[in-house]
Write a structure and sequence with these properties.
The chain is mostly helical. Helix content is about 65%, strand content about 0%.
Amino acid sequence: MNEPLWISEEIVRVIHQNQIQQHGGSLGVRDENLLAASLARPRHFLAYSKPDLFDLAAAYGYGLAKNHPFIDGNKRTAFTVMATFLLVNGYLLDVPEKEVVQMMERLASDQEIQESLAQWLRKNSV
C-alpha cells in the first residue's frame, strides 16, 4: 500500500470547529495528548500491520470517538475525519445520516469495534 494522504491536526481542529458551529456544543480540546494519540493511531496501524484505507479511516474514527479528546462533538468530528480521509484518498462515503448516527452511537457505547467500523466503511464507500 502506498502512503495515504493523512489528515493533519490542523484540519481535524477545523473540522471540529465547523461541527460545533453547525450543530452546537462547546468548542475546544479536552485533552491534547488524547488528540495526538487519536491522530497517531492510523499511522501506527500502518507501520505495524497491513491495513487498507478503510482500516486506516476506522482507526481515525475509533480513536477520536473513543478517546474523546474534544469537549463536545467527538462522534461528529470522528465521522467527518473518516469521510474526509477516504475522500482525499479516492473514496466517497455514501451512507444515510440516520445510519451514520446509529453507527457512531454504537461505536461510542462499545457496541462496535474498529474492525466492524472498517467493514461498514468498505460497504458504504464508492
